[in-house]
Amino acid sequence: MRLRVLAAMSGGVDSAVAAARIAEAGHDVTGVHLALSANPQSYRTGARGCCTIEDSRDARRAADVIGIPFYIWDMAERFHRDVVEDFVSEYAAGRTPNPCLRCNEKIKFEAVLDRALALGFDAVATGHHARIADGVLSRSPDEGKDQSYVLGVLTREQLKHAIFPLGDSTKAQVREEAARRGLMVADKPDSHDICFIADGDTRGFLADRLGAEQGPIVDESGAVVGRHEGAYGFTVGQRKGLHIDRPAPDGRPRYVLSIEPVSNTVTVGPRSALEVTGIVATRPVWNGPADVPHEPLTCTVQLRAHGEVYGCRAQLSGDEVHIALDTPATGVAAGQAAVLYLGDTVIGSATIATAA
């Protein structure tokens, strides 16, 4: 069946090859680049770029080579509200957000998909490294590039209208194919870090928006061991950049254990104190083939992008997902996603609220 497909083209090699594959398969494809900043020069460029003027030009050139229509959609206001402002408010509340996950949820598969369907398109195609079959999301065979985690927040309805043409390919294969197709982005480096923080200084970015506010760094006993300029500049599990005045009695490194935004207090302690075996997560999304687990379900969970996978038992209780880990995890931060899997298949996700 010939589909009308909107191909989201970031200007990178993955989305270019994804669009080319869909067009070659005989579908009616239109390329679109998302302009996400009212001032694109303030966003990252070059090897660390994402959604800049440079990227829009690369996307247009790729569309010309493929031979498909190409447009630029201005999503700057929506992106600022749903991703940038959310990022700032989450840090202000003592949580650690994932802006790429939020961009997939709110921009690429909500705002863009809604507009695409309204315009008569059947589906949206992206260059994500993940597999999808009959609306079910699974991991990519390229473990190092797998992006099923940041797609785990999508609903079944959104996945039903999503196409990931790179699902069975490794990154190396994608680059080789891009070169064969004559796409100039074949050797373009992947984007890294946070696209809307031009210099990569997250703490400085937050300080500009939230202001400096000195507070104590305390150990587990409550003794003050240092000072900071804003609790929002820290995340659970952080070791570097703590500026602690006195070493731990045993001489071992200290890590951030918790962040309390109301009192503006950061608590530090040994790595062993970071270990958790129980997680409570909110805002669940059930998008896989399995039934909602009202009884404990044996599965696995991933707690951050490209992070370790843990065996667990997950159960829905009211509006919360309770996750009991088989082995302790460290550095589990509120605000991150807990994505549940059966084998390589995503069955659902939720936002981490507490861990102990």
UniProtKB/TrEMBL annotation:
Q: Which UniProt keywords apply?
A: ATP-binding, Cytoplasm, Disulfide bond, Nucleotide-binding, RNA-binding, Transferase, tRNA processing, tRNA-binding
Location, primary (coarse class): cytoplasm
One matching Pfam family is tRNA_Me_trans
Annotated catalysed reactions: S-sulfanyl-L-cysteinyl-[protein] + uridine(34) in tRNA + AH2 + ATP = 2-thiouridine(34) in tRNA + L-cysteinyl-[protein] + A + AMP + diphosphate + H(+)
What positions constitute the catalytic site? Answer: C103, C195
Q: GO CC annotation: what is one?
A: cytoplasm
Marked site, Interaction with tRNA, at: H128, Q336
The record's section on InterPro entries has: MnmA-like, MnmA-like_C, MnmA-like_central, MnmA-like_central_sf, Rossmann-like_a/b/a_fold
User: Might you give the EC number(s) for this enzyme?
Assistant: 2.8.1.13
Q: Name one GO biological process term.
A: tRNA wobble position uridine thiolation
Q: Which residues form the tRNA-specific 2-thiouridylase MnmA-like central domain?
A: 204-269
- Interaction with tRNA: region residues: 145-147
Localization, UniProt: Cytoplasm
Record-listed ATP binding positions: A8, M9, S10, G11, G12, V13, D14, S15, L34, G127
Give the coiled coil ranges.
none
The answer to whether UniProt assigns keyword Nucleotide-binding to this entry is yes
Give residue ranges for domain tRNA-specific 2-thiouridylase MnmA-like C-terminal: 277-352
A GO MF term: ATP binding
Q: Which CDD domains did the record assign?
A: MnmA_TRMU-like (cd01998)
Q: Give the signal peptide as a residue range, or say none if absent.
A: none
Q: Which SUPFAM superfamilies match?
A: Adenine nucleotide alpha hydrolases-like (SSF52402)
HAMAP family assigned to the protein according to its UniProt record, in alphabetical order: tRNA_thiouridyl_MnmA
- What family is reported? Belongs to the MnmA/TRMU family.
What does the UniProt record say this protein does?
Catalyzes the 2-thiolation of uridine at the wobble position (U34) of tRNA, leading to the formation of s(2)U34.
Q: What is this protein called?
A: tRNA-specific 2-thiouridylase MnmA
